[in-house]
Amino acid sequence: MTVAADVDAFLRHVAIERGLSENTVAAYRRDLAVYASWLEEQGIGDVAVVTPATLSAFAVHLGTREESPLTASSLARMLSTVRGFHRFLLEEGRVPADAARDLRPPKLPSRLPKAITVDQVAALLAATDGDDVAALRDKALLELMYATGARVSEAVGLNVDDVIDTDVVRLTGKGSKQRIVPLGGYAQAALSSYLVRARPVLSSKGRATPALFLGMRGARLSRQNVWLIIRAAAERAKLDQEISPHTLRHSFATHLLAGGADVRVVQELLGHSSVATTQIYTLVTADTLRDVYTASHPRAR
After folding, report:
1. How is domain 3-91 classified at the CATH fold level?
2. Residue 262 confidence (pLDDT)
């Protein structure tokens, strides 16, 4: 059965069996027309294959589409219609499970994440080059943050023991949830130089601490320290836009998705509890992803 046929069956049900008003049925019809159109754009012709992740992506689309993003109240109403539609399909035996059971409006940012380009990241990281202990630390810190997408609180919260076999780190995120994230070659080299040549010097200036990144007095580096380090590096790199620790996290996610990474993998790397949060980055990279598709798919040209 097609999506259109399922929609018609649902509308007959709410009009005849539930006796809803013509205006309410018309509102349901408009909502489900938007949903059906979006499913068609995704290549989905049968609601039986819709998953919770599919619906999360639809919710993000509604709240962030450029042509006419929905207000919070309109988004909540439309998702309520979609939940009722899927509940009806389950009761009718059309779907094996209710994919929309836990569907809720996503927490959408007031604006899309701001990322910088790969070249700008390279310039920012190059601005930390140097042989003194502060430069070695700053280089390792920024390379690690870009390599892992770590939040600033996660980066300063790292202990030496969280570096596993030099190529993997254990990050502790919101709610004390831990995740394992790999390190690329540049980050590995920078971290190794810092651990061998700089951290022992910094550690000797204060009390013993398990902290990975240390300040000039030997104590754990603070979040404010990281802000100042990144701001100084951005000035040396002559980057015009405002750069914050979260800019590196945004850039990490955006560059991965632009390179073709699966959104579920990026979700795990970022430590997002919901894929809907990660889906925001797919909007930032849409143009780049289209370029990748055009260059890579044999039937794209």
Report:
1. DNA polymerase; domain 1 (1.10.150)
2. 86
Task: Copy the structure tokens of residue 35.
Answer: 């949903």
What is the DSSP code string of 256-270?
HHHTT--HHHHHHHH
Min mean pLDDT across 144-148, 234-238, 253-257 is at 253-257
Classify each residue of 48-69 as buried b or exposed e, where b means 16 or more C-beta atoms within 10 Å of its C-beta: eebebbbbbbbbbbbbbeeeee
Instruction: Please name the CATH architecture into which domain 118-292 falls.
Output: Orthogonal Bundle (1.10)
Q: Of the given ranges (88-97, 104-113, 270-279), which has the lowest mean pLDDT?
A: 104-113
Question: Which residues are within 8 A (CB) of 282 and not within 5 positions of it... i.e. 6 or more apart?
Answer: 57, 257, 263, 289
Q: What is the mean pLDDT of residues 63-84?
A: 78
Give the separation between CA 167 and CA 235, rounded to whole angstroms.
30
Q: What's the token pair of residue 168?
A: 């993997």
Task: State the span(s) of the chain assigned CATH 1.10.443.10.
Answer: 118-292
Catalytic residue positions, numbered: 151, 174, 246, 249, 272, 281
250 vs 286, residue with greater confidence: 250
Digit-coded pLDDT (tens) for 25-36 = 999 999 999 999
What SS3 state is found at 11? Answer: helix
